[in-house]
Amino acid sequence: MLFHEIDPEKFHNEYIPYTAEKNDMFIGCGKNEVLAAENEGMIVLPTVGEAVEAFGKDADGAGNGTAPKLSDFRYLFSIDERRFFALTDRETAAFGAYTWKSMRYLRITKPLSLSFAAAVGVQLHQWYQRTRFCGACGAGLVHADRERMMHCPVCGEMYYPTISPSVIVAVRSGEKILLTKYAPTHFPQSTHNAKATYALVAGYIEIGETPEQCVEREVMEEVGLRVKNITAWKNQPWPFSSTLLLGYFCDLDGPERITLQEEELSVAEWVERDQMPVRSADISLTSNMMEAFRKGEDPR
Ligand SMILES: [Zn+2]
Question: Would you say 172 and 289 are in contact if contact means Cβ atoms under 8 Å apart?
């Protein structure tokens, strides 16, 4: 089950400038955090109405804070009939039962549709936060009316939400797969244990190259190997890093001797299919690909 696979519910991100109503969902965003409560292990998000009431109170609850108007809430997307809004132009504080939860928390909580909504909401909110001034002329940007876009009233430059396409590559040699571990320096600020767990070769697609060319380049850069039979697998929007992950299986073309790129990786090794570590149920494409290989379900 990948993070975005919320069937039978459906994610709708077409932009419609709705005005919020009190029973719409509110995604309260901090810096890499989201406001949520928990009920019996399930994530609970506040409503717009709860946020209006809470922000209208001052610290002692007296009721003379500045409550946001419903029109201050920016429409983000819907899941089925549920609409999600954020306050993109003002600070959000924790209130009531809702506390700041980490992005890591969203990877392990249920239901998937709400944790996915929260993660994508934070992703969009961060884009709004970073897209306030024109990179061409420095003027303040304004929201477009009809699409999810910021534009410059002075020079006309337009800014759309940014995603970075990346590849994840499972390299096979017969019944073996190439597993890697990131170098500790690769995640200097990360609190999650990416450096301790196995991963696959991965990297960002560069300007001017196809995903397949990126597969060849990344494998050569990270482990010094040539590959062939590059075959597309699943793909995954990954809100935590604003990436679109494209999964590929491929086969080694040449000898198995690895030349490790040490700034990037601390470990790269060939592991037999029947010796592979079992990945617990996870929502990431890397885990999905490792499990597919372990179970012999990879494409040939
Ligand atoms: Zn400009």
Answer: no
Please state the pTM of the whole predicted model. Answer: 0.90
| Residues contacting residue 60 through CB under 8 Å, at least 6 positions apart | none
| Alpha helices by DSSP H, 169-294 | 211-223, 285-294
Tens-place pLDDT, residues 46-78: 999 999 999 887 655 555 568 899 999 999 999
Report the alpha-carbon distance of residue 51 to residue 147 in Å, rounded.
25
Q: How far is the CA of 88 from the centre of ligand 1 (A)?
A: 20
> In angstroms, what is the span from residue 124 Cα to ligand 1's centroid?
21
Pairing mode, if any, of strands 176-182 and 201-204? unpaired
**187-224 pLDDT, tens per residue?**
555 544 555 688 999 999 999 999 999 999 999 999 99
Q: How far is the CA of 158 from the centre of ligand 1 (A)?
A: 8
Q: Which CATH number fits domain 11-130: 3.90.79, 2.60.120, 3.40.50, 3.40.190?
A: 3.90.79
Host H or E run for residue 75: strand 74-79
- The answer as to CATH 3.30.870.10 being correct for domain 164-294 is no
- Distance separating alpha carbons of residues 40 and 106, to the nearest angstrom: 15
Question: Could you tell me the distance, in angstroms and rounded to a whole number, from the CA of residue 144 to the centre of ligand 1?
Answer: 14
